[in-house]
Every structure is written in structure tokens, then in C-alpha cells.
Amino acid sequence: MGLTAELLTGIQEIDEQHETLFEILDKLQGVVKGGDNWSVVYFALNELSHFARTHFVVEEALMRLHGYPELEQHIAEHRAFSAHLAQLEEQAVRQDVSLTIIQLIQRWLVEHIGVSDKSYVACLRTMPVLR
Ligand SMILES: [Fe+2]
Ligand SMILES: [Fe+2]
Questions:
Q1: Which SUPFAM superfamilies match (predicted)?
Q2: CA 78 – ligand 1 centroid, Å
Q3: Mean pLDDT by 10 residues, the chain (131 residues)
């Protein structure tokens, strides 16, 4: 599962960041599958949550700049995801992270980009700044 054509938003910076998120997730999946040491898994998770946070800040700034009407709902989705990752990071210190959890994260990302990110981009496209 990665950045398929239907997940592209057409905003280069955003698409590149989504690509990076999937790359980090691939790496995370690899280390979990490989049964690597917990610290390797922990650092991959840490990288994912840091990069996700940076990406969310960029999107939120973009939506705020354009006065996107569903900003609050979108931010809530980002926050819930970040909170989930933070919790997982903490757990990774004590117990093995399962592949199922990594797949759930992937599914969330695909769903979020495919539905929520695509809607804000579509909305922003109707506004003057991005024309
Ligand atoms: Fe996004
Ligand atoms: Fe988003």
C-alpha cells in the first residue's frame, strides 16, 4: 500500500510529503516484519510521528490561509492520529508492535488522504489563491 495515483492531490509539496509518509511506513513495516530490536521499531515510529506532525502543520497552515470551512474537523483527525502514534511509541518500549497495527496506520493514512485531504484540496482549488 502506498501513494497510488488516486491519492495524488496535485499539490507537489503535499504529494511529496505523503510519499515520504508512505516510505517511512514501509520502513516501519520492514523492521516490524524483520523482528528487529524494539529500539529500531521505536525510532521508525518516532520518525513517522515527527514527520506526520510536520506535514499536518503544513496542511493546517494552508487550510487556514484559505479560510477552509472544515478546518476544525480536519485538525481533529490529525490530532487523533498523532495521539494514536504517540501512544504506540510509548507502547513500543514495553511490547512488540504488531503488523496489524502498522496496517491500521496505513489504512488510516490512505483513508485520510483519499477523503479528507482530497476534499480540502478540491475546495482550495475553487478559491482564488491557488488558481
Ligand atoms: Fe495529508
Ligand atoms: Fe490531512
A1: Hemerythrin-like
A2: 9
A3: 89 97 96 91 95 98 94 98 94 90 95 97 82 49
